Amino acid sequence: MKEKPDNNLFILQWIWKSYLRNALIPLLLIELVFIGMFFLSNNWSQREMLSLLKNEVRAHLQEIAQRECLIISEQISDISPVAAANADKIINTVTNQILNLDLPWQGYGLLLGKDGTVLALPDRGEKDWVLNELTNHHYNEAALKDAFAPDQFNLYKRPDLAAFGKQVAGKTTGFASINLGGMKQAVSWATVTGTGWKLLIIAPENNIYSNADKMNGRLLKIGSSMLAGLVLLYCIFFFILFKKSHKMSNSISQPLLEINNIIQRIVAGDYFQKQKDLGVHELQETASLLVHMGQQLETANENLLHIQAKLKKKESDLQALIKSIDDIIFEVDENGIFKNVWTNSEKILLMPVDQVIGNPIQSIIAPDKSDIYLSKIKQVIENQEPDVFEYMMDTLYGRRWYLVRIAPIASELKSVSVSMRDISERKEMEKSIIAAKEETEKASMAKSQFLSNMSHELRTPLNAVLGFSQILQMDKSAPLDNSQSESVKEIVKAGNHLLMLINEILDLAKIESGKLNILIEPVKILPIIEETVAFIKPLAKENDIEIAINPRDCMEQYVLADSIRLRQVLLNLFSNAVKYNYNSGKVSFYCEKIDKFIRFNILDSGLGIPSAQLPAIFDPFYRLPITANNVEGTGIGLAAAKQLVELMGGNINVKSQEGQGSHFWFDIPCAEAVDRRDI
Fold this sequence. Notes:
- The chain has helices at residues 11-40, 46-77, 87-99, 123-128, 139-145, 162-170, 205-209, 212-267, 281-324, 353-356, 367-383, 424-474, 482-513, 525-542, 563-579, 637-647; strands spanning 108-112, 118-120, 174-180, 183-191, 198-204, 328-333, 338-342, 387-395, 398-408, 415-422, 521-524, 546-549, 558-561, 586-594, 597-604, 651-656, 662-669.
- The protein is α+β, with helices and mostly antiparallel strands.
- It folds into five domains: 1-40 and 211-306, no CATH class; 62-208, PAS domain (Beta-Lactamase), CATH 3.30.450; 325-422, Beta-Lactamase (2-Layer Sandwich), CATH 3.30.450.20; 430-497, no CATH class; 517-678, Histidine kinase-like ATPase, C-terminal domain (Heat Shock Protein 90), CATH 3.30.565.10.
- Strands 2-1-5-4-3 form a five-stranded antiparallel sheet. A five-stranded antiparallel sheet has the order 7-6-10-9-8, sandwiched between helices. The chain has a five-stranded mixed sheet with strand order 12-14-15-17-16, with helices on one face.
- β9 (398-408) and β10 (415-422) form a beta hairpin.
- α1 (11-40) packs antiparallel against α8, α8 (212-267) packs parallel to α9 (281-324) and α14 (525-542) packs parallel to α15 (563-579).
- The two termini are 107 Å apart.
- InterPro entries: HATPase_C_sf, HATPase_dom, His_kinase_dom, HisK_dim/P_dom, HisK_dim/P_sf, PAS, PAS-like_dom_sf, PAS_4.
- It is found in: Membrane.
- GO terms for molecular function: ATP binding; phosphorelay sensor kinase activity.
- Residues 314-384 form the PAS domain.
């Protein structure tokens, strides 16, 4: 393969070639043309002289504009992706070059952006164009952004220069004579290749033509000497220029070599470099940046070493943490290959840790379960959501239960972390709890069955006693005396009370054993309340208790309940309100609709319940200590009422204060959709 020819030039060759191409040859040609024109136009009139001079000025200004545009274009072309960081320096150089142009006739340059914005204008030109640079704006920033905010800095948007702006915008090069600042100005422009920028060269026409008359007489005298001296002048000039180029190349190459040495030392690891005076501002800035970069690299290297030390410490801490816990932690990729393993005991696995890494999950998990693992791993990677499940695995300790958590790892590699915690002891404990619960339920069922059987066994002879007692009361053939009649009444009363207690025990046993049948149907509230009040009034009358029913609209509504069990709950609450009341007390009832429920409220003015006893009043066989010996009952009624209400889809609650009565309420679902005509 042939090597590409080296087309790079030495600095001296590059400078000399640039001088010849861009300055010397065009300047020489212009001078020769100018002298030839001088001899040909010597006999022309003053008017023709001025016209010719004007054309010359136009050509000269145009040449200067094109030359400077070419220089700017070359400087702009140096902004490559690699050198984009130095774009501001190059733009700054271009701006300074325009601002410091040394032009004949006290002329100056003006650089326009592609949209007509003034990018560079020297101080002496601001007066002509009636512009003052904004205090918060700089030309180099304008060149970078290619925009000024104010319209007075935009040549194409100024009404007073509309025609001239249109002419400049429409042509890549041109010449015009305009009135600026009360003076005629000659303006020539050219376009900077690749940017759309326009470079305008402006010179006062008074300065251009002021010496025309004087030169007309002198040209004849000096024309011949100019031609003779031109050859000598250019020979001397070329010699001096060559020496200057050689000196300039040396002044540039030495700093560049020093910069190259700085870079090589930094690459070798000697980050801290001393800055030397290179004599060229731009190269000095480059060297400064390189020295600063070396210092930053040294700092970054130190930080990297520090971070590496911290990572090693964290890794050791992580290893210590892993050794302190019993969990097994794996890193697994999407194909089920173990990438890493952390555990404090290798005996948990079926093989050493170093043999697990790189193997598939089938190496430690049964083949019939590995597919489940793989599907869960892929699901976690796809959904980016963790998954938790329990799994039994064979280990060197035998079969053990593990709580497995699979979580995605935030990285470009598709992998997950799998943590496994031994929960075998917990599973054994759960089995024990379940077994104990089953035993408890069996004991509860046995108790309920026993109570049910005992209730049936007691109710049979009790019904016989009540039957014979009622026969004695109703037997007219052998009437009882007063003493006997009172005794029989006491027998009947005690028997009925005992029968009621037996029925309550039987109901509670049925509820707890799950054998109580509940028929849920729409039930109208008012008849149930009337029947309950009619049944409880004799008991209330004995103790001079007032029963107050507050009529409400909800009394005419329906609830979804078992009518018998609803009546049983109301009767229990009303009887308690009467039994636990003071003489001449009061029991009140009202209902209200709350959302999709009907609330039944029973209030009494009786003894009340101590706050410490409230949590236990719905427990079976619980009775208030202060009334246990004074009020008949077993403590089953409220427990049965609570369970019956819950079976009907409601709930029961109480609010009470000792000595100030109690407020019981329970909620039953409404039957709003029931057609009243069908009931």
